[in-house]
Amino acid sequence: MTSAAEQEQLRAQLDTLTTEAFRPELAEIDRLETVEIARIMNGEDAAVPAAVATQLPRIAAAIDGIAERMARGGRLIYVGAGTAGRLGVLDASECPPTFNTDPDQVVGLIAGGPAAMVTSAEGAEDSKELAAADLDALGVGADDTVVGISASGRTPYAVGAVEHARRRGALTVGLSCNAGSALAAAAEHGIEVVVGPELLTGSTRLKAGTAQKLVLNMVSTITMIRLGKTYGNLMVDVRASNEKLRARSRRIVSLATGAPDPQIEAALAAGDGETKHAILAILGGVDAPTAARLLSESDGHLRAALEAAQA
């Protein structure tokens, strides 16, 4: 329980944050027609990509650092509380089926643990010590990257995670939606997507949440492109774990090679269903064991393996 003085200090701090600002022009929004409220929200959301665009050089620099570390075995670890934490866990959970990553390569930590994904545990966000303990449980080290996510940029759990990770030698990224944030200052790569006050005062699951989702999409997707998880814009490392993904795998091989269906089916069968292996076998004119060897020697980069096959 915080004291009255601590509560007053926190209130004064929130009063300085753009994401917490009150918008008097929307004070009677509840009187408007539903379609008009929807138009206002849609207009608010339309401004988010432009705010992200101002941070593209910083986002790209962070991605290059992340990819460099992941190429030598490091992990990408998202850390946040509430909505920010849930967005990190969501992005991490999409990487295994999309890019065939191991579950421990991209990790999402949320204050309060997995239960906080569906049940509010907002009080957990106030502990820097909890963040340090969660990272220590993962054994964070120099090859890892820790991305702290916080709309306000002041959340103790996210700031504490970045500070602790930096002491452990990890690369650190701070993603917030306020300028001059403590989170960005604590990280080597500070990304501040300033989207302005929310439609509902302080409801940062709205524009701020959308901005964070857009940036996390870039971080994971472009990192995986840099790691050779794609061939052009095809997801050649997709994990065919269900019928839809198996159909997508066949379609990807078809788009990449233009081969007839029987040849695609044979290549996939010989390569244990691995899309990338099948493409290399067809385009490179090699058998499945040779395709596996060439991909291993090229660290999974299909273009490099194709060049080796055609040399």
- Topology order in helix (H) and strand (E) letters: HHHHEHEHEHEHEHHHHHH
* Mean pLDDT over all positions: 93
The total strand number stands at 5
Radius of gyration: 22 Å
The end-to-end distance, rounded to whole angstroms, is 68 Å
The helix/strand class is alpha/beta
What does this structure look like?
The structure is a single chain. By secondary structure, the chain is of the alpha/beta class. Helix content is 54%, strand content 8%. It is built from 14 helices and 5 strands. The chain has helices at residues 4-15, 34-46, 48-53, 56-71, 82-99, 128-138, 156-167, 182-186, 207-226, 243-257, 261-270, 275-284, 288-297, 302-310, and strands at 76-80, 106-110, 145-149, 171-176, 189-192. It has a 5-stranded parallel beta sheet with strand order 2-1-3-4-5, sandwiched between helices. It starts with a helix and ends with a helix. The mean pLDDT is 93.
Key traits:
311 residues; five-stranded parallel sheet; 14 helices; 54% helix
Kindly summarize this structure in a few lines.
With 311 residues, the protein is α/β, with parallel strands linked by helices.
